[in-house]
Amino acid sequence: MAILWVLMALLMLSFVVIPLLRRRRGVIERVSPDHPDAADPANYGFVREEDLDIRMPGPDQDLLDVLDLVQRTQDYRAAAQLLAGTEAAGELRWQRVQAFAGAAALELQQRPGGVSETPGGQWLRVWRAEQPKDAGGAAVHAEFLVQQAWRTSTRGTDDFRIIMEEAKDACGQAALLAPGDPIPYIIELSVARGLAYPREEFEQLWLKILDRAPAHMGAHLAALHYWCEKWHGSRELAYSFAEAAAARAPQGSLLAAMPLFAVFEHLPEVNLVSGFYQSEVVTKAMHGALYAVHAARPDDPMLAHVRHLLVFFLVRAERWAEAMNELVHVDGHVGALPWTLSADPAAEFAVYRALAVAGFEANGGSPASLPN
User: Fold this and answer.
1) Is the pTM of this model over 0.90?
2) Cis ω on the peptide bond leading into residue 338 (within 30° of 0)?
3) Three-state secondary structure readout of the chain
């Protein structure tokens, strides 16, 4: 009898605890495909979960072709040519530098090398050795070191600091090779966060970026982390930074979406407030991001980043038709926040996509009425 009472108590407790756990940041309960409330995303022409590309937020076929060639041949020259032909101060070059550095870091993680094995990412080492004055290779190497520090070491340890100090030196070398290029300084923003730069030093670094690329969205997102509560700032400082960026955003700039990223970075771990995602703060930030998306150039490389975050917030706010409109534009690629915070980005994205479809249909939507 005592055991029965214990089991009943555990059952009752589960009704309280499980809903709370399901409200943790970014976690939404999955709906089984055979559940009566489930809707089929395939009816809308969406890509199957197993075919979603987790490498990038949106398409960049030139980058994919070059990455494939470099990794297959271990010859860096195609990467050097692609970066040399990409606008130095643009968002696309920054994304490509990150992609090449990430590919080299992942290769090294998968093949650390040994007595009879060449370590992964050897093409990057050859690139730096054969073309030491190539600004693109120097930038990729600096970003590679930053990613290595975050991937392989624990913040605050000697190993982490040593790699970050090496990355800082590499940023300086890359900056000398291309004085007008903002990317070495953008890379250093992550170093500044990891090494806890004093605010005055961080602000001096930030001014160097503003002098070179004042409307660079990727730079603003990197700087936002420093000002967040979980790093070296506060909620107020992060919101202030994001709102100031949005206020001075030129026409067509995605900087108007910065407040939404600040809200995301400060979401409560457990949200017990009913209608939080319909609150004034969140709604205002979403409207700013929606305005930015509608005003931006269709080929803006950062557009997919904003659309992915909007999917997250619009689904949570139960604004199904608007969520579907964003999904139409980004489906197929999931290498962006918030999905990349998950151990399985494709699965996380697929959950939100299924919820958007189900909510859309529950309110009278259908493939024929899908927003364009």
Assistant:
1) no
2) yes
3) CHHHHHHHHHHHHHHHHHHHHHCECCCCCCCCCCCCCCCCHHHHCCCCHHHCECCCCCCCHHHHHHHHHHHHHCCCHHHHHHHHCCCCCCHHHHHHHHHHHHHHHHHHHHCCCCCCCCCCCHHHHHHHHHCCCCHHHHHHHHHHHHHHHHHHCCCCCHHHHHHHHHHHHHHHHHHHHCCCCCHHHHHHHHHHHHCCCCHHHHHHHHHHHHHHCCCCHHHHHHHHHHHCCCCCCCHHHHHHHHHHHHHCCCCCCHHHHHHHHHHHHCCCCECCCCCHHHCHHHHHHHHHHHHHHHHCCCCCCCHHHHHHHHHHHHHHCCCHHHHHHHHHHHCCECCCCCHHHCCCHHHHHHHHHHHHHHHHHHCCCCHHHCCC
Kindly report, residue by residue over 26-67, the tens digit of the pLDDT: 445 444 444 444 567 888 899 999 999 988 899 999 999 999
Tokens of 337: 């926040």
Residues 276/282, Cβ–Cβ less than 8 Å: yes
Q: Token pair of 160, please?
A: 């982490």
The reported pLDDT for the residue numbered 35 is 47
